[in-house]
Amino acid sequence: MENRRVFKKNFFSLVLTGIRPIIFTAVIVVMVVLGIRQAEDASRAEGVRLLEEALMRAAVHSYAVEGFFPESLEALVENYNIFIDHTRFIVHYDVFATNLPPNILVFERR
């Protein structure tokens, strides 16, 4: 006669076996969502930095060519073809004197 071992699974082990794939899938989904959110935040910060650098580069170029910094943001945008998405960004352009670099701050609208 053969020796057969019959293992009876109790209710707890059956539930645990059924829940493991669900927990694993939930953890993976949460990690993917957090990764996407982090990538979006990094992209937003990069957009702000790039716009700020473009505005400052154009202002310095204006100073090199014309001998003074632009008096307003509108003059800078018009003469150097910079596009500002005003639905996404708030730009503060402050000129103290035309021979000093302007104070340029870019904020993202939330």
What does this structure look like?
The chain is mainly alpha-helical and 110 residues long. The chain has two helices and two strands; from the N terminus they run H-H-E-E. A two-stranded antiparallel sheet has the order 1-2. A hairpin with an 8-residue loop joins strand 1 (89-94) and strand 2 (103-108). The longest helix has 56 residues, at 11-66. The model has no long low-confidence stretch (mean pLDDT 87).
Concise structural overview:
With 110 residues, the protein is mostly helical. Helices cover 58% and strands 11% of the residues.
- Low-confidence segments: none
Helix content class: 55-70%
Order of helices and strands: HHEE
> What's the story with the biggest beta sheet?
2 strands, antiparallel
Portion in beta strands? 5-15%
In whole angstroms, the N-to-C terminal distance is 76 Å
Radius of gyration: 30 Å
List how many beta strands DSSP finds: 2
Helix and strand content put the structural class at mainly alpha
Which overall shape is indicated by the principal axes computed on the Cα atoms?
A: rod-shaped
User: Tally the helices: what do you get?
Assistant: 2
Spatial order of strands in the largest sheet: 1-2
Mean pLDDT: 87
